[in-house]
């Protein structure tokens, strides 16, 4: 019986092929737009989040509880380097590192700027740093004892300095005495936004500790897990290993803007898919109403011959689902073939400053997720099913005699 | 004409459900378009105004190159007399000179690197919202006073209150070592943590003395009466600059390229969405009109056989579509206006919006602003596309043979 209904529905679909083609074009365009737009925005937000996480870096961070409000060298982490190493040495994190992060001023003979000084162990941070060590002009730091300093290209431009020249870095020690020293610029890094290049300077961790008079102590510990979407296991593991006066935060606690972006993005995808579907649904329902209207006599006849109203309903619903399924196929294929050629990124540097304001880079890499595609397809099928119930129900309720005699 | 109109109107109501469904599609997208555009353009204006009001102004006078590099020695010479003459020339008080540098601010317990703005106490409140955001203490007593106004987070981090002293360490315009001690006179709070953490203001003459500016400064910030007058203002200011000076007068587009570009990026994605909506509605109209024409093939065949030219029939179809489009447009505008005005009344916010809003200097609750532009543009475009979509069914008449058509059931 179901086979017969399928066949009836399929043949009915092509009785008025013009109408079906127009509807398919509409559904195809709509579904394409759903997926295409979603992939673009997803790509942008993904990039923002991964850049943001790299800049932090890490998925989970540990600080003195006062530090995030008052990022001062006075708010050191209660555990010194030796204790941290003892606790985390054999932990199964993807990577972790302790670092000195303090505000500082850097001065060349030409100008001075406020920066964030990062005293790092280059080896342990290689995997999570936003700097690709191999792309650094000159060289990156080699060890915690490195006597050089690595700054961003934009900062070098502002300070009118270059590799091989000396600059002075100035901050405070825990007694609020000025702590400063001259260092030779050994490398220049590039980043996705010029703000990042202006903000960060890298020194060897031990060199920084010595300058600040805090040997063995750090202000920040960063931990990298496997998946930024699922940081709780990492968070719990870190919490389990420490005690005392420290604050442990997930990346979205540190950068709440990025955290909300992720949530807002999920909401946006759903709203966009539903809006497009609603715009389509008028046409869909209209088509079905027409299809039923044209066939009133026929339906009446089938009812009179003993076909059950349920079969009439099923027949119309199947027709609608077939229409949607073909439309969805077209839309999905279109989406995939338009997105694939863009995998290498779309250059949107023409609005680079605007993207920077949003925290995004000037290359846009569309991100096509199975989940988003499934969502779009599921919404169309489920809501489409619901929308076709009303005309189908109406058709199945016709009084046979009346229907047959309709002109 | 009136008979054609009447005919078209009656034809529409042969299939009331179909007409309503098609009109519904138009109304749906028109309501969305009106609301979204009111929301969007209201938001852009706020974004521009709020961003510019913090410090930037509509235009600035700067030394060439300062815009890109913001170097200490890229100065505007004799900046106070210049600002005075601009005020006289423009007959406006919304002109204020500033000096800007980085310095290490130290209290007894803490030191932080911050941006120091040297400002004219009498005029700064005219061009910046910061003086109005003072929550403790007050603004400067004079242009040479050794006083400082700091952001609330900075005050907390430095652990200073009103009357405490802050030492400023930096370099002068000639590269020499510069130091001064200032008393905290006021504390401002903008709610934007970056601003409240990183910025302090001191009187301009005190700035000059501390950093050896010798009368020079870095920017004069100027507001026009209205955002639309910026172009004229720019030209006026250019004319008033001293003869032979190489100073430049960038407008806010150059000063804050991020704002304009964020708007552009947002607009292009929004217009993509609008366009898709309009296209979907057009398909819906195309489908409906094609059906309604095909249904009437027989009827059309008869009237053509009676001598009616296909052109007139085509026009009939277009008029039917136009009537339907008009209904969709008017109802859509009406419903769109009602929805927009209602939301404008109660405000609109989505969870998580405050975080995003801060990034663009926007309030957490937004109110769309209904303008003639936002009310009419979307519906007008939908109307035009509706008519375009009906062209194919209307033109079909021309290759329809009356006899064949009459045979059609």
Write the layout of secondary structure elements.
The complex is a heterodimer of chains A (407) and B (409).
Chain A: H1 2-13, H2 17-55, E1 60-63, H3 81-88, E2 95-107, E3 112-120, H4 122-125, E4 137-138, E5 148-152, H5 153-159, E6 166-172, E7 178-189, H6 194-199, E8 200-204, H7 205-212, E9 220-224, H8 232-241, E10 247-250, H9 251-254, H10 256-294, H11 296-304, H12 309-339, E11 346-347, H13 352-358, E12 363-364, H14 370-396, H15 400-405
Parallel strand pairs in A: 3-8, 5-7
Antiparallel strand pairs in A: 1-9, 1-10, 2-3, 2-6, 2-9, 4-7, 5-8, 6-7, 11-12
Helix pairs in contact in A: 1-12, 2-10, 2-12, 2-14, 10-14, 12-14
Chain B: H1 2-12, H2 16-56, E1 59-61, H3 66-69, H4 79-90, E2 95-106, E3 111-119, H5 124-127, E4 134-137, E5 147-151, H6 152-158, E6 165-171, E7 177-188, H7 193-198, E8 199-203, H8 204-210, E9 219-222, H9 230-240, H10 252-255, H11 257-295, H12 297-305, H13 310-346, H14 353-359, H15 372-396, H16 402-407
Helix pairs in contact in B: 1-13, 2-11, 2-13, 2-15, 4-9, 11-15, 13-15
Describe the structure.
The complex is a heterodimer of chains A (407) and B (409). Chain A contains 15 helices and twelve strands. Chain A has helices at 2-13, 17-55, 81-88, 122-125, 153-159, 194-199, 205-212, 232-241, 251-254, 256-294, 296-304, 309-339, 352-358, 370-396, 400-405, and strands at 60-63, 95-107, 112-120, 137-138, 148-152, 166-172, 178-189, 200-204, 220-224, 247-250, 346-347, 363-364. Chain A is elongated. In chain A, helix 1 (2-13) packs across helix 12. The longest helix of chain A is centred in the N-terminal third of the chain and has 39 residues, at 17-55. Chain A has two domains: 2-52 and 259-405, no CATH class; 57-254, no CATH class. Chain A has 407 residues and is an alpha+beta fold. Chain B has 409 residues and is an alpha+beta fold. Chain B folds into two domains: 2-51 and 259-407, no CATH class; 59-250, no CATH class. In chain B, a hairpin with a 4-residue loop joins strand 2 and strand 3 (111-119). In chain B, helix 2 runs antiparallel to helix 15 and helix 13 packs antiparallel against helix 15 (372-396). The interface between A and B is large, with 70 and 71 residues.
């Amino acid at each position: 019986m179901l086979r017969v209904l399928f066949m009836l529905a399929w043949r009915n679909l092509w009785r008025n092929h013009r109408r079906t083609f127009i509807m398919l074009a509409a559904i195809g365009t709509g579904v394409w737009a759903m997926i295409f737009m979603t992939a673009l925005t997803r790509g942008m937000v993904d990039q923002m989040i991964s850049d943001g996480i790299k800049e932090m870096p890490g998925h989970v961070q540990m600080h003195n509880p006062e530090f995030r409000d008052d990022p001062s060298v006075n708010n050191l982490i209660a555990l010194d380097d030796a204790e941290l190493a003892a606790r985390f040495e054999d932990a199964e994190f993807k990577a972790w590192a302790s670092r000195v992060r303090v505000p500082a001023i850097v001065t060349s003979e030409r100008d001075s700027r406020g920066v964030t000084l990062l005293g790092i162990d280059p080896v342990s941070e290689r995997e999570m740093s936003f700097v690709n060590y191999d792309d650094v002009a000159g060289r990156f730091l080699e060890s915690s004892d490195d006597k050089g300093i690595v700054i961003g290209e934009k900062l070098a431009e502002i300070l009118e300095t270059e590799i091989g020249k000396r600059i002075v870095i100035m901050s405070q020690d825990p007694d609020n005495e000025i702590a400063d020293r001259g260092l030779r610029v050994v490398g220049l890094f590039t980043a996705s936004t010029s703000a990042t290049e202006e903000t960060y300077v890298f020194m060897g961790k031990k060199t920084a500790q010595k300058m600040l008079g805090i040997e063995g102590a750090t202000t920040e510990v960063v931990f990298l897990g496997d998946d930024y979407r699922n940081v709780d296991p990492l968070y719990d593991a870190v919490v389990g290993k420490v005690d005392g006066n420290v604050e442990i935060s997930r990346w979205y606690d540190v950068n709440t803007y990025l955290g909300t972006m992720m949530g807002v993005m999920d909401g946006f995808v759903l709203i966009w898919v539903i809006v497009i579907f609603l715009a389509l649904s008028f046409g869909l329902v209209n088509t079905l109403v027409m299809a039923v209207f044209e066939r009133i006599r026929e339906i009446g006849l089938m009812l009179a011959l003993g076909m059950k109203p349920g079969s009439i309903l099923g027949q119309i619903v199947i027709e609608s689902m077939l229409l949607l399924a073909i439309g969805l196929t077209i839309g999905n294929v279109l989406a995939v073939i338009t997105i694939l050629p863009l995998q290498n990124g779309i250059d949107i540097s023409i609005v680079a400053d605007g993207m920077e304001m949003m925290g995004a880079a000037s290359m846009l890499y569309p991100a096509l997720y199975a989940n988003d595609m499934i969502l779009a397809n599921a919404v169309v099928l489920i809501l489409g099913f619901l929308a076709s119930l009303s005309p189908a129900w109406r058709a199945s309720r016709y009084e046979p005699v009346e229907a047959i005699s309709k002109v | 004409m009136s008979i054609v109109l009447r005919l078209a109107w009656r034809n529409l109501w042969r299939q009331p459900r179909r007409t309503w469904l098609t009109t519904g599609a138009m109304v749906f997208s028109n309501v969305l378009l009106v609301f979204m555009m009111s929301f969007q353009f209201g938001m852009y204006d706020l974004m521009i105004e709020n961003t510019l009001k913090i410090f930037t102004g509509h235009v600035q006078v700067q030394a060439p190159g300062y815009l890109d590099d913001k170097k200490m020695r890229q100065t505007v010479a004799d900046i106070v007399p210049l600002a005075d003459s601009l005020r006289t020339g423009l007959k406006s008080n919304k002109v204020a000179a500033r000096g800007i540098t980085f310095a290490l601010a130290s209290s007894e317990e803490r030191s932080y690197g911050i941006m120091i703005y040297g400002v004219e106490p009498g005029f700064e409140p005219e061009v910046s919202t910061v003086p109005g955001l003072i929550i403790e203490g007050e603004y400067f007593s004079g242009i040479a006073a050794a006083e400082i106004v700091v952001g609330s987070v900075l005050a907390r981090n430095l652990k200073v209150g009103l009357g405490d002293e802050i030492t400023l360490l930096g370099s002068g315009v000639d590269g020499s070592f510069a130091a001064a001690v200032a008393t905290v006179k006021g504390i401002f709070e903008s709610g934007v943590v970056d601003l409240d953490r990183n910025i302090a203001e001191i009187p301009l003459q005190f700035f000059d003395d501390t950093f050896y500016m010798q009368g020079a400064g870095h920017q004069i910030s100027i507001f026009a009466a209205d955002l639309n007058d910026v172009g004229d203002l720019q030209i006026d200011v250019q004319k008033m600059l001293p003869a032979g000076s190489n100073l430049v007068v960038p407008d806010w587009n150059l000063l804050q390229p991020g704002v304009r570009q964020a708007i552009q990026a947002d607009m292009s994605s929004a217009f993509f969405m609008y366009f898709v909506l309009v296209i979907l509605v057009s398909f819906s109209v195309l489908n409906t009109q094609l059906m309604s024409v095909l249904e009437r093939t027989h009827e059309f065949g008869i009237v053509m056989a009676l001598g009616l030219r296909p052109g007139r029939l085509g026009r009939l179809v277009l008029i039917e579509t136009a009537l339907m489009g008009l209904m969709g447009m008017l109802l859509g505008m009406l419903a769109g206006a009602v929805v927009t005005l209602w939301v404008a009344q109660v405000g609109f916010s989505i969870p998580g919006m405050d975080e995003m809003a801060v990034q663009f200097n926007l309030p957490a609750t937004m109110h769309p602003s209904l303008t003639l532009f936002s009310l009419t543009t979307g519906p007008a475009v939908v109307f035009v596309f509706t008519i375009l979509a009906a062209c194919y069914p209307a033109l079909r008449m021309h290759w329809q043979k009356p006899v064949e058509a009459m045979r059609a059931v």
